[in-house]
Amino acid sequence: MTDAKKELLSIADSCVKCGICSPHCPTYTHTQNENESPRGRIALIQAWAGGQLNITDNLLNHIDTCLLCRACEKSCPAVVPYAKLIDDFRAQIHEEMPPSMSVKLLKTVAENKRVQRWMKSGLRLYQKNNLQKTARFLRLPSLFGFGKLERLVPDYQETQTLQNYYAAQGETKGDVGLFVGCMGELFDFETVLTTIRVLTHVGFNVHLPENQTCCGALALHEGDAETAQKLASQNQQAFANKNLQAIVTIASGCGSTLKDYAPKVVDISHFLMQTDFDFNKTLKPLRATIRLHTPCSLKNVLKTDKSVLNLLKQIPDAIILPLPETMQCCGAAGSYSLRHGEMAQTLLDELLDVSLEKPTDYLVSSNIGCALHIAAGLRERGENVTVVHPVVLLARQL
Q1: Fold of the domain built from segment(s) 282-396
Q2: How many Å apart are CA 55 and CA 65, to the nearest integer?
Q3: 258, 247 in Cβ contact below 8 A?
Q4: Distance CA 14, CA 59 (A)
């Protein structure tokens, strides 16, 4: 038995099979299939690592349908490191699970800045000349196998070249690094700019290391451990400045991965709540109803979800309606919606049904993957609800 299999068995053996996690698992909730529960998946990995089960398409599918929302970890009395078990298993059988064309394209864009620049130019051409509307009307993306990926593309946002350093306004309180992520600059440039604006407004110098790269989450969860480690090493070097008080992230999915290998990682909303800046005295009123979506990565991994609510509460006149605590994963889960569209759509529909029970002006999410997935669902329903990052909403009222 290999050392890798021994480690898998060691982690799997820590599960006492109590089943407390099962009601918290989205896939088990919707299938009532034990193999689609955390306990069931652990048992399958246990059997494979122990030589009692061979690799089959059925086995791989049960493991691959896990969203890695990590709700099970939050409820586990034995504190089983479930996500590590799934990631390590996927790394072991990486060659057995070739990614789809859409996932390959997504990873290529995420991990290569040159490709990102090409993509940015291509999106400008695609969207500014009504090509996107025509293509969607004719369903060309689906015909060419990229429908699930193309549906996530938001309206075009004008961008500009980012500087490596932005000085604080007024009294300087310190220095922070800003992790923009591989998709933030491409699909959510407003969040990047407004985060810089807010951080400098409250007194922090902002550093954007040019050599920062993708956090590695896509590669890690696809079982590509080598690429994930390479990206992690590059980010560790990029943010090695010891004078940084924090490495601020604007996507909780990135933050939940970064925190495992980079010190001082903190979500932007939580960081702002830790400062002594009083937004109550500076924010303009906003007479609007705001639905608050809490990403799994913020709730179950970073565990700073209450900071977003407390931050938004400082906007005068705004009505904040958090989604129920029992609301499960939205179905985005990195590249999950590209691989398991049916389950992703089921989870998204549940979220949207609850979100739209009352008239809503804004839906706020702290993770770009969730935001793109939710915005696509709203667009497909013909709903006129703006999906924004909480810091964007805050900055608009400054």
Answers
A1: Rossmann fold (3.40.50)
A2: 16
A3: yes
A4: 21
Predicted confidence (pLDDT) at residue 152 exceeds the cutoff of 80: yes
Three-state DSSP at 396 gives: helix
Which residues of the chain are in CATH 3.40.50 domains? 165-274, 282-396
* Segment 315-354, tens digit of pLDDT: 999 999 999 988 999 999 988 998 899 999 999 999 999 9
Cα–Cα distance measured from residue 156 to residue 137, given in angstroms and rounded to the nearest whole number: 18
> Which distant-in-sequence residues (6+ apart) come within 8 Å of 241 by Cβ?
175, 177, 207, 209
Statement: residue 145 has pLDDT above 80: no
What SS3 state is found at 226?
A: helix
Residues near 351 by beta carbon (within 8 Å), at least 6 away in sequence: 293, 323, 327, 330, 331, 374, 377
Instruction: Give every CB contact of residue 68 below 8 A, 6+ residues apart in sequence.
Output: 83, 86, 87, 221, 333, 334
- Round to the nearest angstrom and report the end-to-end CA distance of the chain: 60
Q: Provide the 3-class DSSP secondary structure of residue 275.
A: coil
d(CA 231, CA 214): 6
Residue 238, H or E segment: helix 225-238
Over the stretch 84-132, which tens digit does the pLDDT of each residue have?
Answer: 999 999 999 887 777 777 777 788 888 888 887 887 777 777 777 777 7
Mean pLDDT of 193-203: 96
At 287, give phi and psi (nearest 5°): -85, 85
State the amino acid at position 1 in one-letter form.
M
Torsion (CA) 129, 195, 197, 121 in degrees, nearest 10: -20
* 246-249 and 265-267 strand pairing: parallel
Residue 315: what pLDDT? 95
Q: Which residue has the tokens 């939050």?
A: 74
Q: Which helix (H) or strand (E) holds 127?
A: helix 113-128
Least confident of 142-146, 209-213, 254-258: 142-146
Angle between helical axes of 3-13 and 38-49 (0-180°, round to 10): 150
Class of domain 3-96: mainly alpha
Q: How many CA atoms lie within 13 A of 181 on its CB side?
A: 28
Fill in the DSSP letter of residue 16. -
Order of strands across the sheet that contains 204-207: 165-166, 204-207, 174-179, 246-249, 265-267
Give 165-274's CATH code, choosing from 2.70.98, 3.30.920, 1.10.10, 3.40.50. Answer: 3.40.50
Q: Can you tell me whether residue 231 is helix, strand or coil?
A: helix
